Amino acid sequence: MSYCEKSYPTEPTAPTVTTTQIPGPASTKAIENLGKVFDARPCYFVADYEKSIGNYIVDLDGNTFLDLYAQIASIALGYNNPDLIKAAKSPEMIRALVERPAIGNFPGKDLEGILKQLLKFAPKGQDHIWSGLSGADANELAFKAAFMYYRSKQRGYNTEFSTQENESVMDNVSPGSPSLAVLSFKKAFHGRLFASGSVTCSKPIHKLDFPSFHWPHAEYPYYQYPLDKHTAENKKEDDRCLQIVEKLITSWEVPVAALIIEPVQSEGGDNHASAYFLQKLREITLKHNVVYIIDEVQTGVGATGKFWCHEYANITPPPDLVTFSKKFQSAGYWFHDPQFIPNKAYRQFNTWCGDPARMIIAGAIGQEIVDNKLVDQVQRVGKYLIDELAKVSEKYPQYLQRLRGKGTFIAWDLPTGEQRDLFLKKLKLNGCNVGGCSDKSVRLRPTLTFEEKHVDIFIAAVNKTLKDF
């Protein structure tokens, strides 16, 4: 019995769309009403989550879509998962929701167990965790940890702060407030807050009108596909980008304390970094005493066919910090060097220090993935999916360009952004909810419970859409 048969016995056998446009009339009216109290302009449609099940999302008009977007890549197991509902009804969850403890000061007696459950799923080489509230928050917290670690290495971990440091930081000047930088990559997306906005470089709309740090952006490799036919060219591209990274580190106007990279630039167009590139970055960061941060907010928790995407690269020694969120329904960063714990209390701190309710769900998600070997399923289904898409690309090469992916974390390009947007609109009318990224890319982000039967439905919808395109 498959996971879906076991967990979602009432999951639909096919999508159904009864309206002639999306959003339909009921969703349109609901969006209009919502817009009176909330910015509803980005809404695709209004969902009925009580009726959504497994890999299908239902809207207010009764349209039932096969969902390959999964709440912007943040649903791991599908809608109304019975094991997550069970976790949500547990006594630990009731305490976490009702009391919402300030766990930095008043941790509950069950917090240690909650964290140990999460650490079972940590990336290879990582054995500590710090929790946050969102992907952007996780990255901002990681930057704080990196800066404090970097300065403690210069000062000495147990060295007291000088009078000058304590006084100058109150005026936001050096030495208490040092000039340091985080290096990121063009087309990167790491969040929409202030420090995370400064390392985000995907679309102007993400960061217009708010102040940013003057931090460097290196070039991320842009590969030719299929990879096995362009080995030499892609190796040359890796080396070109690595030279840029090292030059920026050694020549930037202020010291580069940290480097952050996505193993796959998700919002930026599903640009993949090779194992060679990620390992060479580790060597460069070690050489120049730069903290190495891997952003696994969108790529983590199984969708690429590894629990953590950067594990494909077997980075040695392990990255310093690995941030997570989305499919874990929680957020934070993993680390292994105890000196990333600041030398004094209250330096990495806020009222809640994360959310134990979300941690409980994350632990349940991880256990479901491991117990049901869903990462193995992603590898199997992902191969089937990309092979079927390759067949479609032979029929419609102009509309499936640069097909790429790991697991079910798959993307391709259309010739223009206008064609991409039209394709997604028509695909939705054919029953599949799919998202885009960058200027002209289509990205697939199904749940880990996506099966071959779902692939067949999706491929039929793609063929129907392109036939009438």
Tertiary shape: globular
CATH class wording of the largest domain? Alpha Beta
Let me know the largest β-sheet: 7 strands, mixed
What is the percent of helical residues? 25-40%
Strand ordering within the main sheet: 3-11-10-9-6-4-5
**If you compute it from the alpha carbons, what radius of gyration comes out, rounded to the nearest whole angstrom?**
23 Å
Average pLDDT, rounded to a whole number, is 97
Secondary structure: number of strands: 16
Task: Report the sheet-strand fraction.
Answer: 5-15%
Low-confidence stretches: none
Going by CATH, the homologous superfamily of the largest domain would be Type I PLP-dependent aspartate aminotransferase-like (Major domain)
Instruction: Provide the CATH topology of the largest domain.
Output: Aspartate Aminotransferase, domain 2
Structural class: alpha/beta
Count of separate structural domains: 2
Report the CATH architecture of the largest domain. Answer: 3-Layer(aba) Sandwich
Count the DSSP helices.
Answer: 15
Measure the end-to-end span.
Answer: 38 Å
Family: Belongs to the class-III pyridoxal-phosphate-dependent aminotransferase family.
Enzyme class: transferase
Subunit structure: Homodimer and homotetramer.
Protein name: 4-aminobutyrate aminotransferase
Task: Give a verbal description of the structure.
There is one protein chain. By secondary structure, this protein is of the alpha/beta class. 38% of the residues lie in helices and 13% in strands. It folds into two domains: 3-48 and 64-81 and 373-467, Aspartate Aminotransferase, domain 1; 91-370, Aspartate Aminotransferase, domain 2, CATH 3.40.640. It is built from 15 helices and 16 strands. Helix 10 packs parallel to helix 11 (275-287). The longest helix is centred in the C-terminal third of the chain and has 22 residues, at 374-395. The model has no long low-confidence stretch (mean pLDDT 97).
